[in-house]
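User: Is it possible to get a 3D structure for a protein together with its bound compound? The compound here is iron/sulfur cluster. I've pasted both below.
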Amino acid sequence: MKNESICCINNDFSIDKLKNLIFDKYGVNAPLCYLHSYGCQQNVTDGEKLKNLISKIGYDFTDNEDKASLIILNTCAVRENAEDRVFGKIGEYKKLKEKNSDKIVCICGCMAQQKHIAERIKQSYHQVDLVFGTFAFNQFYEMLYEVLKTKNRVFNTTEQQSDISENFKQLRDDKIKASVPIMYGCNNFCTYCIVPYVRGRERSRTEEAVFDEVSDLVKEGYKEITLLGQNVNSYGYGFPKLLRKLNTIDGDFRIRFMSSHPKDATPELIDTILECDKVCKHLHLPMQSGCNRILKEMNRRYTIEDYAEIIDYARSRKPDFSFSSDIIVGFPGETYEEFCKTKEAVKKFKFDNIYSFVYSKRSGTKAALMEDNISDKQKGLWLRELLLEHREVTVSWLSRFVGKTLRVLADREGRTSENHIQGRCNENIIVEFIGDKNLIGSFVNVKINKAMNWALLGEIV
Ligand code: 5AD
Ligand code: SF4
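Assistant: Yes, that's possible. Here is the predicted structure of the complex:
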């Protein structure tokens, strides 16, 4: 039986010793690391920071878990199915570990931050060597050193909030689009949501740090920057002010951001979006529900009328202003009639895109204690109904672009044929057109001929 270490304070640690240990173990051929991030952009960003740390101590990366000496799953806790997938993967690693007991398996991120998950892994999944939550990222080297040197299993679910370390740079895979966190954590405690528990309270990066990072990315050639935060509207130094400042950076690029909490979205935000030429005319504004009673139970702190006011204001200034939304179906106690109010809202607000989910019970949240009488199967049927409703609205709403020429950032191969490529317009809608693959990474003007329910089809002009 291996030893287990709860923390990893190892007085003996230094980065040079860690590098030497890795060199002694693997020799001149760099050992390989497989790292996969689940979930939201914020989590992907954490994964990119981890990748940077890992590359600095001599690892290369692989997409093949078989070949990896170090496997890292950077996990998401927002819904149960994300956790199930991770446990499925961990199960698969049992065989890999039997074949090669030297392989190090690490589970980190939001899911690992929850004590009951760390405990479950400790008791039942002995193929896992290292478990650490979001708060322990800055101790990664120490923890890895401990595991490599002593072969002890390490579990670290500290809740001590770490400072924002500006030294943690991201190693980005994408060379066209980059995500830049502007703040971490969340103070809102929506009753269904685990995020405030696993990511702690809001901490904002300084305006200077964000400005410098975005300027550098633009100089490197990035064409689209997405500013990230659980609620960018509560960015500590004024979000509209930050947007205006970033808009002054020279270069051909555009700025997106997510997410905006409706309770803090103001006409000033809309004005800023409209007045800054680099900022995309699109707002991701998670509505969650169209029913005031459910919104109250969710602790969202706005009514559907407040929500409508923001949309109305934006569209009074720009009639085709684009909105997208997150929606939860089947919150505890929600009735079919209440769900129908969400359907009505989806019809009324004409979102260009919705991300809809069946409610998932997260232990530790307030909603987990609420009575819930509707089966998951029934909720699944409601979800399908919602998607059909949305699909019906989408095509006619997207048709507002037919005949117009849109500026599209080409970002991948197309879906229709080998000759097609794909990109996103300012409003964040997929645009598909015939074009040379060399155009991927550039802005292209595309005249829209047709609206489909998944994309706009057009031709280069
Ligand atoms: N169940 C279902 N969906 C959830 N989300 C957050 N928590 C839950 C949950 N417990 C959704 C919300 C949020 C998006 C990121 O995930 O819609 O906006
Ligand atoms: Fe979760 Fe609400 Fe915070 Fe978004 S604003 S991360 S839904 S608690």
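Residues 376-398 form the longest helix (23 residues). The longest strand covers residues 405-413.
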